[in-house]
Amino acid sequence: MQYWLVKSEPDAFSWDQQVANKVEPWTGVRNHMAKNNLKAMKKGDLAFFYHSNIGKEIVGIVEVAREAYADPTIEPGEKGDWVCVDMKARRPLKTPVTLAALKADPAFAELPLIRQSRLSVMAIGAEHWQAICALGGVKP
Fold first, then answer.
1. What percent of the chain has pLDDT over 90?
2. Domains of the chain (ranges plus CATH)?
């Protein structure tokens, strides 16, 4: 199993909407590195759900329910082989983990969220996954 982090602006699509919809396609990714990460995801992989812009915090955990397929939000004439995956809500974190808290802890200095802050879909190592779960009050 691999671990990931996916970002969403909560005023566009929030954790509460993910929970209400249960399974939702993760669409609209238009960055090649993020697209490659989506393509690498396997059914059953877990990802942190991160609220970007507003909140800047990890608020929940989702599971890859369907592997990469053509993104239905591609506009006519748009170039690129953009993909999406379906994400299923698993559980909220008991305590959201803020970007500020992660930046303040040297143990997270190499976390992609710190090093590549603009990337919307990123891999998370098992050690960081476990540490963030602990900070969020959930079992890994």
1. 96
2. 3-136 (3.10.590.10)
